[in-house]
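Quick one:
INPUT:
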């Protein structure tokens, strides 16, 4: 009705008929989806803290800079301590972490759920904090499979082309069909075990460290779709393609 009334008003002004549809108020757009828009509630979900894990909100460090002229508040530091190690996480200053000692639950909250940045960081911070809690209590693992003729991995205390970054660092030696072996240094917080030449197990309390090192190893020989050769991480599979026939 609003569009018809607007078109009638434009005609009374004296506009030509072919200009009335272009200047009239367009009808309201309708979405193709029939379901209502639902936002994620991951940030509001409570975190379960095992009995052997301690989550502590550390006080902010004292800065030499004048607090009066500081424009952005520094991030808060959270320490997660468990039987497998200690991890630290920085959370935004506007985020609040509350714990219930009786139920062993922790919740994150933000002052304004409608603000996009706070809503995005809310769920992301909650997911990373949950990974840290699981890491110091149970640990994170990644299993790599080497599929291909002659593909294998070795764990050596020294390397020919790399220098150790810390005392006692070990090196992964990959033989992937190149003219030279590939040498990679093991990160400080990652434990590498090679039960078979074609199997590798990565363990760490930090999930990011495990997945990052697994991705660096996989990048040297990604799975290819014609013969199915390459380095596969965890339960990764690939659909084989038909061979190209000329």
């Amino acid at each position: 009705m609003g569009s018809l009334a607007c078109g009638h008003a434009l005609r009374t002004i004296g506009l030509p008929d072919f200009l009335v549809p272009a200047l009239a108020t367009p009808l309201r757009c309708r979405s193709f989806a029939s379901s209502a828009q639902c936002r994620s509630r991951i940030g509001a979900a409570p975190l379960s803290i095992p009995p052997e894990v301690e989550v502590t909100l550390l006080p902010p460090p004292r800065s030499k800079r004048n607090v009066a002229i500081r424009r952005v508040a520094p991030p808060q530091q959270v320490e997660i301590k468990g039987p497998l190690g200690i991890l630290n996480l920085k959370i935004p200053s506007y985020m609040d972490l509350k714990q219930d000692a009786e139920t062993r639950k922790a919740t994150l909250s933000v002052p304004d759920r409608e603000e996009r940045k706070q809503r995005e960081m809310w769920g992301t911070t909650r997911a990373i904090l949950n990974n840290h809690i699981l890491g110091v209590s149970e640990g994170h693992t990644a299993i790599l499979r080497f599929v291909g003729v002659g593909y294998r991995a070795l764990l050596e205390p020294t390397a020919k082309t790399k220098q150790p970054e810390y005392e006692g660092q070990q090196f992964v030696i990959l033989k992937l069909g190149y003219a030279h072996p590939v040498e990679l240094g093991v990160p400080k917080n990652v434990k590498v075990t090679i039960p078979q030449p074609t199997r590798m197990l990565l363990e760490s309390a930090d999930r990011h460290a495990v997945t990052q090192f697994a991705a660096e190893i996989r990048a040297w020989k990604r799975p290819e779709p014609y013969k199915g050769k390459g380095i596969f991480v965890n339960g990764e599979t690939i659909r084989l393609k038909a061979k190209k026939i000329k």
